[in-house]
């Protein structure tokens, strides 16, 4: 397990340390040296220097692709240690770390290289006929160029997959990047420094800095040498980053909170229990896309509540090394207290706890929360409006599909959504009406070719897909004519 930071091609230590805690048992995984603030500034300045000198940005695209494949090969070579580290620092089941982070993230990163190579990054525009006749303009060119120096700030719940879906397009586009992982799960991201060394990335093209607080992140979002901030995390922090980036007019890409709805058409109500399990299984509800509002026909609501309560009652909560556990802990005491506080507020506003609602018996250490089902009286309830980021599901009834759509759209967020229906055409028609960045109709997909991102307060811009690559590029127009 690496225990220092990677700055401009070299490993550095710091005098101050911070604790990385295992949320499954509250033990200390390690005391990690924080990157000194002057070293974070050096990472920024070296990224600026590497970009301005073109040591990476000016390489032929095929060479960048070859080096990045070597970078991902080196990343993959640390598989066993990486999985163990993710389990320890995030309390995630090994299967989730393996499948949802390592394998999906790596496949997405390699797919991003292929997508970039298939795209045109310089193309011609039509020239107005008057300009052609007068001979003023012979050629009009639209060129996509790298933004420059990018700050990538990643969350605790998907440290590796979120880093990969930022690093792959940003580096492939020719940018220089400083990666700053969450202070709660910083260890796994240090693997990218080792991979950069092994692949021979030029110094300054990638740095990985770690800290226990936010001073470094604030420097990375305010420094005039940084051209772009790509952040995944809470809406509250996203607003702060927008404010910090404003004085220097940086480009900002944000994937923020969500309060996604899963809508069951009358012919798909039997699917609800399985959908409820998907909200909490493996992640303990700690996913920004988690569909924590379940919308079902009002006349079937009692049946659904009974089925979901039975399903949640059968789920075992436990540490990641328990093969029978369906979900582990939330990340820390603050996260657990937030779950408890919102459940209490929901009940005070008329909700009923149908299952769970407390801490599991027999787990005195670790930040565990019972998978909880709430019968919500309406969409104004706190549990229907606030992002909980824990294993808490609220069930709402609707009279008809127009009301279901209205309830789903009645949110400050718009990150994801789900619609289930045996009549696929009818379900798709509902999906088209949802004000959200992605909707899964009877299925789901994670792909380098499919964009993700939010409407409203769920974010700005897109990650993955063609749009996710363009997010890390500027557009330049060249008007070319002959000198008369």
From TrEMBL:
It comes from the Bacteria. One of its GO terms (molecular function) is aldehyde dehydrogenase (NAD+) activity. The active site is at residue 255. Its EC number is 1.2.1.3. It is an enzyme of class 1 (oxidoreductase). Residues 11-477 form the Aldehyde dehydrogenase domain. SUPFAM superfamilies: ALDH-like (SSF53720). Keywords: Oxidoreductase. It catalyses: an aldehyde + NAD(+) + H2O = a carboxylate + NADH + 2 H(+). Pfam families: Aldedh. Belongs to the aldehyde dehydrogenase family. This is aldehyde dehydrogenase (NAD(+)).
């Amino acid at each position: 397990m690496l225990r220092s930071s990677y700055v401009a091609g070299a490993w550095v230590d710091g005098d101050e340390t911070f604790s990385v805690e295992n949320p499954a048992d509250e033990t200390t995984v390690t005391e990690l040296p924080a990157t000194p603030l002057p070293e974070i500034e050096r990472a920024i300045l070296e990224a600026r220097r590497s970009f301005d000198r073109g040591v990476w940005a000016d390489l032929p695209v095929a060479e960048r692709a070859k080096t990045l494949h070597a970078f991902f090969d080196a990343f993959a070579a640390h598989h066993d240690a990486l999985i163990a580290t993710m389990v320890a620092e995030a309390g995630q089941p090994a299967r989730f770390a393996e499948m949802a982070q390592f394998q999906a993230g790596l496949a997405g990163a390699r797919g991003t290289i292929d997508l970039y190579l298939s795209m045109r990054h310089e193309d011609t525009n039509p020239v107005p006929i008057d300009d052609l006749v007068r001979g003023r303009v012979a050629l009009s060119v639209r060129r996509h160029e790298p933004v420059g120096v990018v700050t990538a700030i990643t969350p605790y719940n998907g440290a590796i997959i979120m880093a990969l879906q930022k690093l792959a397009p940003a580096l492939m586009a020719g940018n220089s990047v400083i990666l700053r992982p969450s202070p709660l799960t910083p260890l796994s991201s240090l693997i990218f420094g080792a991979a950069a060394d092994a692949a021979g990335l030029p110094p300054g093209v990638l740095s990985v800095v770690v800290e226990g607080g936010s001073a470094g992140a604030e420097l990375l979002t305010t420094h005039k040498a940084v051209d772009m901030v790509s952040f995944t995390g809470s809406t509250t922090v996203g607003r702060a980053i927008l404010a910090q980036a404003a004085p220097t007019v940086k480009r900002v890409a944000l994937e923020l909170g969500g309060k996604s709805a899963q809508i069951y058409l009358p012919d798909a109500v039997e699917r609800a229990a399985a959908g409820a399990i998907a909200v909490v299984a493996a992640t303990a509800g700690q996913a920004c896309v988690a569909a924590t509002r379940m919308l079902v026909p009002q006349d079937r609501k009692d049946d659904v509540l009974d089925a979901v309560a039975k399903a949640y009652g059968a789920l075992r909560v436990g540490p990641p090394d328990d093969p029978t556990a369906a979900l582990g802990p939330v990340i820390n005491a603050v996260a657990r207290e937030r779950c408890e506080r919102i459940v209490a507020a929901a009940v005070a506003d008329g909700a009923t706890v149908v299952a769970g609602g407390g801490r599991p018996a027999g787990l005195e250490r670790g930040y565990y929360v019972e998978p909880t089902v709430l019968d919500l009286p309406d969409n104004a309830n706190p549990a229907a409006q606030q992002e909980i980021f824990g294993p808490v599901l609220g069930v709402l009834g609707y009279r008809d599909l127009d009301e279901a759509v209205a309830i789903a759209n009645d949110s400050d967020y718009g990150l994801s959504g789900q619609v289930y229906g045996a009549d696929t055409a009818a379900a798709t028609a509902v999906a088209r009406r949802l004000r959200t960045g992605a909707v899964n109709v009877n299925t789901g997909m994670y792909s380098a070719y499919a964009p993700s991102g939010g409407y409203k307060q769920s974010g700005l811009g897109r990650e993955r897909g063609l749009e996710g690559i363009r997010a890390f590029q500027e557009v330049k127009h060249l008007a070319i004519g002959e000198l008369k």
